[in-house]
């Protein structure tokens, strides 16, 4: 049976991005999952997920909201496993799990399981170009 670290290592390389005065910040989602493993899981109302009503997947890097890219996101939502909690930063913003949030919303759920950092981890990259980050480790 694979260990938690093996499962995390098998996750595709992906990043959580956030603009800042120091430039674009990026967190490696696999590291966020490792750091969040011991945090308590709680049910969060989907109505509290602010990103549901904001541009989330687009705006960083070269990916644009084409029909093809939206279909790809829909496929990721359909494949998302709601058994894994989403990860929230200290202010309640989603750092990992928007495809799971989308799936839960499509299924008519009112809540989603989440872990939340009390103090945000330092970003992995500062003032970065999303297209220049390593995606196939």
Unreliable residue runs: none
Question: How much helix is in the residues?
Answer: 25-40%
Q: What's the total number of strands? A: 7
Characterize the largest beta sheet: strand count, sense, and whether it forms a barrel.
4 strands, mixed
Tell me the structural class.
alpha+beta
Strand content: 15-25%
Shape: globular
Overall mean pLDDT stands at 88
How do the SSEs run, as a string of H and E?
HEEHEHEEHEE
**Given the structure, what is the number of helices?**
4
Mind telling me the C-alpha Rg? 15 Å
Termini Cα gap: 22 Å
Description:
It comes from Aeromonas lusitana. This is Chromosome partitioning protein ParB. The structure is a single chain. With 137 residues, the chain is α+β, with helices and mostly antiparallel strands. It has a domain at 41-119. It is built from four helices and seven strands; from the N terminus they run αββαβαββαββ. The chain has helices at residues 4-9, 29-36, 67-79, 98-106, and strands at 15-18, 25-28, 42-45, 86-88, 94-96, 111-116, 125-126. The strands form two sheets. It has a four-stranded mixed beta sheet. Strand 4 and strand 5 (94-96) form a beta hairpin. Helix 3 (67-79) packs across helix 4 (98-106). The longest helix has 13 residues, at 67-79. The two termini are 22 Å apart. The model has no long low-confidence stretch (mean pLDDT 88).
């Amino acid at each position: 049976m694979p260990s938690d670290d093996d499962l995390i290592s098998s996750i595709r390389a992906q990043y959580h991005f956030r603009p800042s005065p120091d430039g674009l910040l990026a967190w490696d989602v696999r590291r966020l999952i490792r750091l969040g493993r011991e945090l308590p899981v709680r049910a969060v109302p989907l109505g509290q997920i602010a990103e549901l009503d904001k541009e989330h997947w687009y705006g960083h890097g070269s990916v644009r909201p084409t029909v093809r890219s939206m279909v790809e996101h829909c496929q990721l939502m359909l494949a998302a496993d709601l058994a894994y909690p989403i990860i929230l930063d200290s202010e309640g913003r989603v750092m990992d799990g928007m495809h799971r949030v989308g799936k839960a919303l499509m299924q008519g759920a009112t809540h989603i399981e989440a872990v939340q950092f009390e103090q945000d981890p330092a970003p992995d990259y500062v003032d970065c170009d999303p297209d220049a980050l390593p995606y196939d480790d």
